[in-house]
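Fold sample X.
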Amino acid sequence: MADEEASGGEDGRVERLISWAASVVAPLSVLTAVLFYFGYVSSRARFEYFGVDVDTIGLSTQDYVMRSPQALLTPLLVLVLIGVAVAIADDLFRRRVRAAAVASTDADESVAGRGRDRSAELERFLGRLELAGRCLIAAGTLLLFGYALLQDWTPYPLVTPLLMAIGAGLALWSARIRGLIRSAAKPRVGVVLALSLVLVTGIFWMTATIAQWSGLGSARQQALRLNELPTVIVDTRERLNSVSPTVKETALPASEAQTFHYRYRGLHLLIQGKDRLFLVPGEWSPSDFTLMLPMDGSVRLQFQFENSPP
């Protein structure tokens, strides 16, 4: 009997440990997936600017996760500030609702009347906020269905989810506060779930758009300073068919032991993939392109020191 209790206790501890591990691993998995997605979106926009499909680079999941903070920093700061503002507004209105409710039950009829008036005024104000939120959701929905006509409008992928997220947030918050004033105004569970889904989807869409713009902006900033990237000297067995005019080609002296015959200077390392290098010239030009070289021994690479004496 004692052995069974001991066994049961041991099994219980194992089950609790598994349950705890699952509660930790699941959020971490979701967080990793989210970071991977935004890192991928940002990296795709960045390298697409240089004519490279990010899938050909061969970056790992860890690489994308490590690249996501740059794209997420601004959205996270904005969300934190909005969260602080919402928390302050929520606390303020809840205090006013409670104060008006207490005043409306006062024995003095004049005080009670003023309390009921304040409650009614707050409810009307919150009702207008809820209506404004629903109008914003409707406007975002119209933009969503007008994608075929508005897809070339640059701010479209940010304005559409912004309207829907702000509208859902306003409608959800104002309805919940109204429910404190009058229980009949409390939103139903289905409405709360629907508005919450619209809010989360809008935030996700906005963040993805900002991540994409962040990657594109980072690429444009990098294009202004390509000469600051690591300088690479490339030796090849055969002449490269086409290179940028800013890249200097030199024929190496012929000898029996020499397997490489051409040297190229003026290239810079954009990124190193799993088994290949992506090189760009030192100056951006719309007629230039990114050079992809395999790391299989067919080329010889030298990385030049920076021209900055110690």
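Fold sample Y, listed below.
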Amino acid sequence: MSDVGRPAEPGPDGRLRCPWALRTPEYLGYHDHEWGRPVRSDQGIFERLCLEGFQSGLSWLTILRKRENFRAAFAGFDLATVAGFGPADVARLLADSGIIRNRAKIEAVIRNAAAALAVPAGIAALVWGYASEPAARPPAPVTMADMPSATPASTALAKDLRRRGFSFTGPVTVYATFQACGVVNDHLAGCFARDIPGPALAPPGQS
């Protein structure tokens, strides 16, 4: 059953949630503790931008299940460390069955780390610079059909990133990063998580 036209629905504890969160335990934890919560660190923004890039063409559940493997493989997405990766690291990553072994995407992460380090105010400040002012923000979506796949802001940032040497950061990937990092709030109207302020929180048992 498609989630697209469904409003917020009660979860196992009776609280209303975005219906996609009810598909799997992994989605439930990600939705409740992280998706849509503000992420303002360079490392946190970079990780999510990279993971959204890896997700292109795949299920987000695949990425969630491999997330700790990605973190281990890419040194916790530390910008300076990843920017310093060389051919031996690319070979290591291509041999790592715990991640998505796509050479173009792997090499893009390395290039993007160097590009992120070159952003004067930092990648987080750049991304958040494209957030709408409160008065200009759209109303809460009622169903997922009300959510765009890209927006003028994500398209503009994608162009900005491309100009700075980033790749695999098109408008759809950027908008998904906006959603993941709380730059936009796409929790559905009625979802309990929509009105919870504060930074992203790791699910119990994770750092």
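Sample Y note: Strands lie at 9-10, 16-17.
Also: Residues 103-117 form the longest helix (15 residues).
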